[in-house]
Design brief:
12-stranded mixed β-sheet; 6-stranded mixed barrel; 18% strand
């Protein structure tokens, strides 16, 4: 008898194949989406948790409060802060380590062959005592015993040497000394260790580690940087002695103790951010790829989770609704079972068995769907590595528990309703439960379409906002423009590279700067002549540019003139934007001729022009004051390239680059791609909401199709009589569709305020944004109503076209 309940459940599913098919497909899709999202949540949550001390490691973030600049928080701190914290708070802090990013695309030579290293850090000798990055070769306590030692990643060691047994191998770096023009500096480094594979779930990704004292560029460029309390050049991590340390109290104690060591310590604040929070909870922290690889926003993770739950919720409603409306067809079956002695409890158990069987089959089907979708997941920016959690015991238990809960919840209402049927009434001709007598069924239809319409509206809003930020007029040209970083070691070669590029027929124009527009500029000090005539100080974004820069990017002058041909060599001409002029109390015309200089310089210059405001940051931020100084000291090159025969043009540009800068690969980026990367999270959200809203509407319409099928079946005789009385096909279709369309319209009215609120909350992240428009709600509502009508019409028209004689004869 142990197999009997399962056998009865299978027979029931076979007798109602249409409903079973709809339920199975809907639940399987819901399970698949929810599973994928839950796997992604686990993947993102587990970043950095492979470190044994992850609960005790904190990153020191710096809050900048310099005069004239908006308060901002970043992951970098000054070099002295690490030792200061360790020495000042010995009872609380066990250890510290600092990481200083060296140039990206770092080139080292071995036996005459150049090798490009993507990400390089200079680190303290305590690095491997704080973090648990395992070594394949080398001793973590002695790998940095010598200042010339380096540690390579496994991948890079195999790339350079062909194997990982490379202790003692020597790598050479050649670079230009900024104080010895036309004279290269050669340094040699010895391999002292090889890292094992760095987990993808690490916010730090690198291919090579230097000793903290070996800064090939900065140590030469600015030897005093390591002693400057205000130069934020290192990422500092501390390990507290135990998880019982009051980190909040420690954080509050830093300013008071720092005041004794650091001049103008009130200009900065410090924040201890837990290692486990860096990946997901960095908010608007000014992080980059080096300090927070694959950064993700926890808010988006919650949105993705909500989408998955919405879809599963809609699928569960389908199951409950369809099981409820067909319960009347099983009245005689239940009556016979009760007559021969079946208890109400056994009837309930039978229906719950059917529900659990359905959810179990849906789970198995969902696994198949996930693997069928695997090739498409990368296109959706999905972390495919998250699928590994499918085979973990904890996840398996969670899934089984979910199946049990959903099976019971989805099947509970139909089970308890059907078990109340009285055999006497059934045998006297009662048809059991009629759909119109159940207030829950229409309520659930409204709920599922409300969820679907909310998703559709949110999709429209996110698509429009994404389109807005990608196609907004930034105030400067971006088409056909590629940018590349020369690196600090090649600062004196920028003019030569520019000259070589300008000779190429495929190059339209070239400009130089020390930073690239689009995602924030370095903020630093500027001195200017105030209204009193005295020199005043302000800390603002600033960028060094050549004489071509303004015209190259099609920036518009409001007053004055652009930088002269002699300006970069002299270094005494300045351009400012409208916002800076306004902040300093000048009209654009008054600004011309005002004295100005960089804070660290002694020679005074003057403002020669005021440019119209443009978005040099992303659209997350308001336009800030900006100072542009004419200079030859530039490390970023912008090239407008002809799209005619683009591949040949790029090849020629690459060849010219390698001729001048052989120690650094030509790693370029088109401005359009740069902006797309800035809004990658929004693109990811938009793709997922599009998929989620499509699935939600599809599953909701599947359920509506099933409901319409049984509504038509229940009213077969009525339809036959109406046809005999002369009713048209359109009138019968309208009759059968009317009740359902009313439910969809009600769902639209409920979804509107919810969707508006959620959209507004998300849009608050942007300084420049759209507003939800009335037509978005109208499109979502009409779209849902149209799809619902078409879904219902399939069965309605079929019923209207049927022979009324057969309908009446069969009663």
């Amino acid at each position: 008898m142990a197999y009997n309940p399962l056998k009865l459940a299978f027979k029931s599913l076979q007798r109602n194949r249409l409903v079973s098919g709809i339920n199975l497909l809907g639940l399987a899709l819901g399970f698949a989406v929810c599973t994928l999202i839950f796997l992604m949540v686990l993947h993102e949550r587990d970043f950095d948790r492979f470190h044994s001390r992850f609960e005790r490691i904190y990153r020191l973030n710096t809050i900048s409060r310099y005069d004239g600049m908006a308060e901002s928080t970043g992951p970098y701190s000054s070099y002295p802060m690490g030792p200061f914290l360790a020495n000042t708070f010995e009872k609380e802090i066990e250890n510290y380590t600092r990481l200083s990013p060296i140039d990206q695309n770092f080139v080292l030579t071995y036996k005459g062959q150049t090798n490009t290293i993507r990400q390089v850090f200079a680190v303290d000798t305590t690095f491997f005592q704080v973090f648990d990055f395992p070594l394949l070769v080398g001793n973590p306590r002695t790998v940095f015993a010598d200042e010339h030692n380096v540690v390579l990643s496994k991948q890079k060691a195999e790339e350079i040497f062909g194997h990982t047994d490379v202790l003692g191998k020597v790598l050479t770096k050649t670079y230009a000394n900024p104080f010895k023009q036309n004279q290269d500096t050669v340094e040699q480094f010895k391999v002292s260790g090889v890292l094992a594979e760095i987990p993808s779930q690490s916010h730090l990704q690198f291919d090579l580690l230097f000793h903290i004292k070996r800064l090939p560029f900065w140590a030469v460029w600015n030897p005093d940087m390591v002693n400057n309390w205000h130069a934020q050049a290192a990422i500092t991590y501390v390990t507290v002695r135990s998880d019982k340390v009051d980190v909040a109290a420690l954080e509050k104690a830093i300013p008071k103790r720092l005041k004794l060591r650091m001049q103008e310590s009130d200009k900065v604040g410090h924040q201890l951010q837990a290692l486990k929070d860096i990946h997901l909870r960095s908010g608007k922290l000014q992080d980059g790829e080096a300090s927070n690889h694959a950064r993700f926003d926890q808010a988006y993770l919650l949105i993705f989770g909500a989408i998955g739950l919405f879809i599963l919720f809609i699928a569960c409603i389908n199951y409950s609704n369809l099981s409820t409306v067909i319960a009347g067809r099983r009245g005689r079956e239940i009556a016979v079972r009760k007559t021969i002695g079946a208890s109400r409890q056994s009837i309930i158990v039978q229906f719950l068995n059917e529900s659990l069987l359905m959810t179990s089959l849906a789970l198995l089907l969902s696994v198949g769907i996930i693997f069928l979708l695997r090739p498409m997941l990368r296109d959706l920016d999905y972390p495919v590595a998250a699928l590994k959690y499918l085979w973990t015991p904890g996840f398996g238990m969670a899934i089984l528990a979910s199946v049990l809960i959903l099976g019971v919840v989805s099947g509970a209402y139909p089970a308890f309703v059907v078990s109340r049927f009285l055999p006497v009434k059934i045998f006297r001709g009662s048809k059991g439960l009629e759909m119109r007598r159940s207030k829950l069924v229409p309520a659930l239809v409204v709920l599922q379409f409300t969820a679907a319409i909310v998703l559709v509206v949110c999709t429209l809003v996110s698509s429009r906002q994404l389109n807005f930020v990608l196609k907004s007029d930034m105030g400067y040209a971006t088409d056909q423009i590629m940018v590349a970083d020369l690196g600090l070691s090649n600062i004196f070669k920028s003019q030569v590279v520019k000259s070589e590029f300008e000779k190429l027929p495929g190059v339209v124009s070239v400009a130089l700067s020390d930073q690239t527009l689009g995602n924030g500029l370095t903020q630093n000090g500027v001195k200017y002549q105030g209204k009193s005539g005295k020199m005043e100080h302000i800390s603002i974004p600033r960028v060094a540019v050549d004489q071509n820069f303004m015209d190259f990017y099609h920036m518009k002058l409001v007053a004055g003139k652009g930088i002269s041909a002699e300006g970069p060599a002299k270094g005494n001409e300045y351009l400012i934007n409208e916002t800076l002029a306004k902040q300093l109390g000048w009209t654009p015309q008054e600004a011309i001729g005002k004295q100005m200089r960089y804070a660290e310089m002694t020679d005074m210059g003057q403002v020669v022009g005021v440019v119209k405001d443009f978005h040099f940051n992303s659209l997350y931020q308001n336009i800030e004051p900006l100072c542009m100084r004419a200079s030859n000291w530039t490390t970023s090159i912008s090239v407008k390239v002809s799209i005619k025969d683009l591949s040949s043009n790029l090849a020629a540009i690459t060849k010219a680059w390698q001729k001048v800068i052989p120690d650094k690969p030509f790693d370029y980026e088109f401005m359009d791609d740069r902006f797309a990367a800035i809004y990658a999270a929004e693109s990811r959200l938009n793709r997922l909401t599009q998929l989620g809203s499509s699935l939600a509407i599809f599953i909701a319409c599947l359920g509506l199709f099933g409901l319409a099928t049984y509504a038509v079946e229940r009213r077969t005789k009525e339809i036959g009589i109406r046809k005999v009385m002369g009713a048209s096909i359109s009138s019968i279709t309208a009759l059968l569709s009317r009740d359902f369309i009313r439910l969809v319209i009600l769902a639209t009215l409920i979804a509107g305020p919810i969707a508006w609120y959620l959209s507004e909350q998300w849009l608050e992240n942007f300084s420049y944004r759209i507003s939800p428009q009335w037509w978005m709600f109208l499109v979502a509502g009409l779209g849902a109503a149209t799809l619902a009508f078409l879904t219902i019409s399939i069965q309605s028209i079929k019923a209207a076209l049927s022979d009324p004689v057969k309908s009446l004869r069969n009663d």
